[in-house]
Amino acid sequence: MIGSLRGRISSKTPPQLTVEVGGVGYELEAPMSTFFHLPAVGEEVKLLTHFVVREDAQLLYGFATQDERRLFRSLLKVSGIGPKIGLALLSGISVEAFATCVKNQDVGALIRVPGIGRKTAERLLIEMRDRLVPTDGTSADTVVPPPDASPESEAFGALTALGYRPAEATRLLKAAGPGTHSTEELIRRALQAAARD
Questions:
Q1: Checking DSSP bridges between strand 58-63 and strand 16-21, what pairing results, if any?
Q2: Cα-based angle 45, 75, 55 (whole degrees, multiple of 5)
Q3: Model confidence pLDDT, tens digit, residues 97-139
Q4: Does the pTM exceed 0.85?
């Protein structure tokens, strides 16, 4: 079991990143909530991890906080919820907002996340009611500078990786508004636009 990694970021393409530790590059996937707080490529980072072994793959997921990883692990215990939907949920809604959704049994907020239908949202709300642990308030405080590649193409790739159809990702990026934005800001604005729909 790999519980955490500390090393230098060698690449970032949301939602994937590679962290080099002692000459070995670990490929991870991370929710956008973690991506927003990653340092620049070449800088050191420490991430909590969750390791998934399947018949056809071994996958590593990275998280900035204990709360994110704890929620991700709880989500995986819900019938019909896999890592992809877990990442999409953490990318589209904060740990605190998810807890509020469960407390208020707010189906509407959950079905705005791509890949979450009404039945899945209802099952999540029922099964997560007794699993949520109070958050410890920890968070990362490093801001990500814009990456070298085109922010629009990076954001488009991240949105499609999170389950949005290409046409929908394009529409959300247009809704993010004009101006020069970093990849993370574009993704953030696009997810906010999706939440308003």
A1: unpaired
A2: 80
A3: 888 888 888 898 888 887 788 888 888 888 888 776 444 443 3
A4: no
Unique residue bearing structure tokens 């604005």 = 189
Domains and CATH numbers, the chain: 4-63 (2.40.50.140), 66-128 (1.10.150.20), 151-196 (1.10.8.10)
DSSP 8-state class, residue 5: E
pLDDT score, position 1? 79
**How far is CA 120 from each of CA 22, 94, 106, 125, 169, rounded to the nearest angstrom?**
41, 18, 13, 9, 22
Amino acid, single-letter form, for residue 111: I
Does the bond joining 15 to the residue before it have cis omega, within 30 degrees of 0?
yes
CB count within 10 Å of CB 119 equals 11
Residue spans of alpha helices (H) in the chain: 32-35, 66-76, 83-92, 95-104, 107-110, 118-128, 151-161, 166-175, 183-196
pLDDT of residue 132: 66
DSSP 44-75: EEEEEEEEEE-SS-EEEEEESSHHHHHHHHHH
18: nearest Cα among 45, 57, 54: 45
Q: Beta 24-29 vs 16-21: how paired, if at all?
A: antiparallel
Cα–Cα distance, 37 to 144 (Å, whole number): 6
Per the structure block, which two tokens stand in for 33? 């909530």
